[in-house]
Amino acid sequence: MANRKPGKVVKAALEKAVDKVTEVVNPPIPGVPNSEPPSLEEPTEPRGPLPPKGDQNGPETVSPTGAPTGAPQIVNAQQGEFLTTSAGARLYDTDHSLKAGERGPTLLQDHHLREKIMHFDHERIPERVVHARGYGAHGVFVGYGTATNVCKSAFLGDGVETPVFVRFSTVLGSRGSADTVRDTRGFATKFYTQEGNFDLVGNNIPVFFIQDGIKFPDIIHAGKPHPDREIPQAQSAHDTFWDFVSTHTEATHHVMWNMSDRGIPRSYRTMEGFGVHTFRLVNAEGETALAKFHWKPKLGVHSLVWEEAQMINGIDPDFHRRDLADAIESGAYPQWELGLQIFPDTPRQTFEGIDLLDSTKIVPEELAPVQPVGLLTLNRNTKNFFAETEQVAFHLGNLVPGIDVTDDPLFQSRLFSYLDTQLSRLAGPNFNQIPINRPHVPVNDMLRDGFHQHAVHAGVAPYRPNTLDGGNPFVAKAEDRPFVEVAQPLPKAVKVRQSPASFSDHFTQPRLFWLSLSPVEKEHVVRAFTFELGKCYEQAIKERQLRVLAQVDPVLCAEVARGLGLPVPAVDARPKKVTPSPALSQVGQTWPTDGRLIGIVVDPADLDGVRTVRETILAGGMVPLLIAPTGGPIGDSGLVAQRTFLTARSIEFDALLLAGSPPPGPDAIPARDAKAGAPGAAVDPRVLLMVEECYRHAKAIGAWGTGRVALDSTGVTGAPGVVTGDDATKVFTGLMTLLGAHRVWERFPATIS
């Protein structure tokens, strides 16, 4: 995948800014609540519902049985200018219950009160046992046509556009938990193809904790809060989790990924996705191949540092969902390339000695390159979180011609689990008739009745064969492209409860991952293990996990043991020699800067420089946020401050620019803001705090004019990744070059080679 060079991006952005004939001083900043601004007074003249914002889109208007209705999407929303009951009767009052006199008891006959309260009492549905906290968006997938030699699925054809809905999520936390916890992320995509729905239900980590789905309840019970106290929430830093993974060493590879920076992604937009399992592909000639699915973000893979993540969880627990929604609203549409690793479909189902049916193993990209087969673009936010994101139902059994399952024992169990989950969570068997789940092709399944049946079935013969309904529905012939399972021969075997011998190597691939990381990333892994194990109560669990790490790498084990104050355990086996995979590291490449958030500390003495830089940032597809002592208009300049020293914090910005070093604002007193510090400072302490945090988190910092005073005050002038100068545009040009690498990596100290 080709990467855009930051220098070209800067040049294009500057040219675009210069060529602008009409200056748009204040284009909308993402986050506006509705499509029209509110009036100061309560409106009294009846009117219909406001139209949705331009960035929002709902489910396609197909019927419960998949027929296109041709109706605009507005038909799925509330209609009319008057408040009504659910049966359509207009209401004259919804603020007062019906009473026997104004001070009397409420009457049982108040049907509006009962309907309103009854619906409220049942607004919530059971949250997902795992992946409860999620966020979704609509988009489109366009095939490249490069997969047709191995897969006959129509949606992978050249130029074929397929609507999609994608839901990102954390695994362990409840719906009310925070976004930036250390956890695995779900990356589930529903393709509404012309051959039926295809659900690719994966994660941001390519391996799983377990090899067999029968252990899935165990690992989730271990990772969830302790059942006696229901704490800790949305985290693995506790005894039951480490008790499980230290006694089930097959989890070691996944744990290594989760303790790395991959466990705390910067955003959904900079997160890889993986199908985890090996799938079987079939081409038009009936030939089969094995494959793994990959989602490669066009912006590159980028993560938070641990302190950032902790701060964000307190300051903005909705950080990831806000970032995704704002990016789509501002037109910085997130994109991922779908890629395939292709392997021969041999009887042993292995590749280069790696068992392809073991979901705790990867195939390094250096051995099997990821071949791009299509582009995913998320371009519409949801209209209603509950109706779409909360009710979307994924199922690995939603397959289309050309894609089939393998005998991976984790995959096989998931085929049962996902279907069973929807029956409980969505209260019946007709969950595929909810608008967000409806396929965009005709449905004639003969599945009648049941809870939430939306379709009004015709005919008298819901069985086949029949003659009373003219034989309808008919089974498809080969030319009609039905889904046909691959006729895979079964080995001669006896029924056993065991795994193949190849599943027993639990340490070679974790070692591969460790040795593929840069020194900075290794430091972060050591810190994560030390923190997580340090939160455990039982000493035996810490010692047991150190024995596991000793079999991965002696340096890793020794550094974690030192942090825990424990002796390094002795092990008999020597770690195997492996060849590192550079593709596993997040360090060393440059990426586009689309959608990045740039904080600009405003100085009234140089508003022209602020205006020029702001326009350049907008023209480059990024979002500038002006930071001033108070919000709103900045004098008569036409500029507007979106953040104040009170409300701004470094974690929101990818880079920080200082046009000045403003003195303390009027609210810079501890009684108003604990960040203000003691009075008497020359520069507002909250500005200095932002500079210190950005520097500590290895973010790019730039300053011109009097902005350099703040840098001198914090002692970061001349440090790596700090750009200064007299010209605002030149300073920003230097900043852009740094942004392409995500962080100023050389700022992080590293003692591990």
Automatic annotation (TrEMBL):
Annotated function: Decomposes hydrogen peroxide into water and oxygen; serves to protect cells from the toxic effects of hydrogen peroxide.
Reactions catalysed: 2 H2O2 = O2 + 2 H2O
GO cellular component, one term: cytosol
Cross-link (3'-histidyl-3-tyrosine (His-Tyr)): H395-Y418
Active site: H131, N203
Annotated CDD domains: GATase1_catalase
UniProt-listed InterPro entries: Catalase (IPR018028), Catalase_AS (IPR024708), Catalase_clade2 (IPR024712), Catalase_clade2_helical (IPR043156), Catalase_core (IPR011614), Catalase_haem_BS (IPR002226), Catalase_immune_responsive (IPR010582), Catalase_large_C (IPR041399)
Catalase core domain residues: 84-472
Protein name: Catalase
Entry keywords, A to Z: Heme, Hydrogen peroxide, Iron, Metal-binding, Oxidoreductase, Peroxidase
Keyword Iron part of the UniProt annotation: yes
